[in-house]
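ping. complex inputs:
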Amino acid sequence: MFVIGIDGGGTKTIAILVSSTGEIVAQATGGTSNPNSIGIDEAKNELLKLVHSLSIQNPKAYKNVVSVFAGLSGIESPKYKEEMKQILQNQLPEIAVTIDNDAVIALFSGTFGEPGVVQISGTGSVTYGLDSKGNRHRVGGWGYLIGDEGSGYAIGRAGLHAAFLEKDNRGPSTEISTLLLEYFQVKQIDSMIPLIYGERARTTIASLSKIVMLAADHRDQVALEIIKYQSQQLGEQITALIQISTFQLEGKIPVVLTGGVMNRSDLLLNDIVKTLKDHGINQVEVTVPKLPPVAGAVIAAFQAVNKNLDKISFQNRFLEDYV
Amino acid sequence: MFVIGIDGGGTKTIAILVSSTGEIVAQATGGTSNPNSIGIDEAKNELLKLVHSLSIQNPKAYKNVVSVFAGLSGIESPKYKEEMKQILQNQLPEIAVTIDNDAVIALFSGTFGEPGVVQISGTGSVTYGLDSKGNRHRVGGWGYLIGDEGSGYAIGRAGLHAAFLEKDNRGPSTEISTLLLEYFQVKQIDSMIPLIYGERARTTIASLSKIVMLAADHRDQVALEIIKYQSQQLGEQITALIQISTFQLEGKIPVVLTGGVMNRSDLLLNDIVKTLKDHGINQVEVTVPKLPPVAGAVIAAFQAVNKNLDKISFQNRFLEDYV
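pong. complex structure:
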C-alpha cells in the first residue's frame, strides 16, 4: 500500500511516494505551486510534473497508490482548491485525493495526524489550529509589511534595525553590525541599503535572521534580546490561538513548532514556553518535529484511507530515506 | 532681481520664479526628478521642462534671474549632482546655479537660510543637520523596511498592526479598526490584505497615518499611544543628531519640523519636545514652518548671491501668491 504526499510551499514543491512502513520509493522536487504567485495553470502543471516524475521513478509502487494528500500554500480560494483537486484526480482516478492548506501538513508532521496547534516560522509566520471538532483557526500571518511576528523576516529586520540604531548613536554596540558588514562585504552600514531594497527584499531580510542567531550564539546582548522578544511574540500568538473561545481540545494540547527559524529552536524554545506559562497555559506539549512537513502529507494520505501507522517505526524508516 | 527655486521630491517637482520681496511671478509643477527613480536623462528633462515653463510664463522676470537653487532628492551621487547642475547652467549661463539635497531646502524654509536641524516626516523620515561650520549630518532615513521611524509609513503601519492585533484577540479594541474597514470598504480586517500588498504598498500604508490621526482626534487610546511612541522616536532622532560630536551650533538650535505628517504637528509636537527635554536638550527652538520647502530653495538662491531678505514681509508676500 502506497500513498503520495505533496508539500507545496512558497518557493518549492516536494512530492513523495511512500509505503505504510515509511519507505520512500520515489521523491521529486519542483518550483512553487502557489497559484497566487504563478497562476493556476502553471501551478497545476507543477503538480502534474511531479506526480509524473514519481510514476516514472517507480511505476510498480505508483500503480498501488491508494491516496494522495497535497498540502498547498495559496489555495484559500475554493475555486483554486477544486481545480488543484481535479487535476490530481484526473491523473489518479478512483483513488482518494485531498487538498488542504500547507499549515495542516506542518501540524501533522508533529502530531502524526492528530489535532493541535502549529506555529510556523519561516520567512513569514502564522499560527494555525485544528481542534477535536475539526474546526480550523488562524492567528497572525498578515504578511511581512504588517506583522509576521517571530518570523525570519521579523528577526532579520530587527537585526538590521539594531545595526542602524548603533550607526546613528541611538542604540548599543552589537556584533550584528560587524557580522552584517562581513555578510554584505561592505565597509559602512549605509552601504547595505541598496543591497537590501529590491525585488527580493523580503527573503533577503529573512535570511539575515541567521546573522542575528549567530550573534546570539556569541552571547551578544542585542541579539539575545531580539530572539527573546520574537520568541515571546510567538508565544503570544500561540496563546491567542489556544484562547480563541471555539478552540476545543481535551487533555494536553500538542503545539508543533516548524519552519526554517525552528532549526534554531534551541534559541527560542524556552521563551516560547515561558510566555505560554505566563498566560497560564501549562497543559501543552511543545514539540519540534523530526519529520518534514511533506511527511505530514503522507500521514494525512494514509489517514484518509483509515490506515494507522506505527509512529516510531514509520518515522525512523522515513528519515532513513528522506533526502 | 529674481531667482528660481526648485524642490525635487519623490513624487513631484516644483519650480518657482520669485522676486526678493516674495512675489511669485511664475510657478510650474512636474513629476519626480529623482534620477534613482526615473533615470538621469528623464530627471534632467523634468528640470528643463519646468524652467522652460517659467520662462514662457514670465519672460521679463526670467531674463532678470540672478540665481537658481534646486533642492533635489536622489542626488547623493556626485555624478548625478554634477549632471543636474550642468543642465541648469547650460540653460541659464552666467548665473549662480546650486544643486543641493532636498533636506537643506526643507531646513531653510524654517530657518530662512540659517544652520539648524530639520526633521522631515512624510511618507518616510530623516533627520538632517547643517552646523555653523557647514558640516552636514544625517540620522535615520534608512527606508520603510528598516526604519523610517516617526514617518507616515511608520504611523500607518502601527495602525494596521493594532487592527490586526485586535482581530487576533491580542490587543485592545480600537477605533482604528472601524475606520480602516470604512476606508477600504470591506467587512473584515483580513480582507484588507490584498488591498494593502502591491506595488504601491509603501504609499498606501503611509496614507493610513491619517486614519490613526483621526482616531487620535477622537481620543482613541491605541491611536494616541501610537502617535506618542512615534513622536518620541522623532525626538530620539533629533537628539541623536544634536548629540553627534561634530555637530556645532552656538545658542539655541533651530529645529524645523516638516513633511506631510507635520500637517498634524498639533498631535506630535508636545511629545517631540518632551523627548528632547528628557535627554537634557533644552536649548532648541522648535518650529513648524509656514513656508513650503520650495521657499527654502528660493531663500537659498538669494543667499547664494548675498541678498538678504526681509523675513516676515517675504514670507507674507510669498504665502499670498503660493498655490
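Chain B has 14 helices and ten strands.
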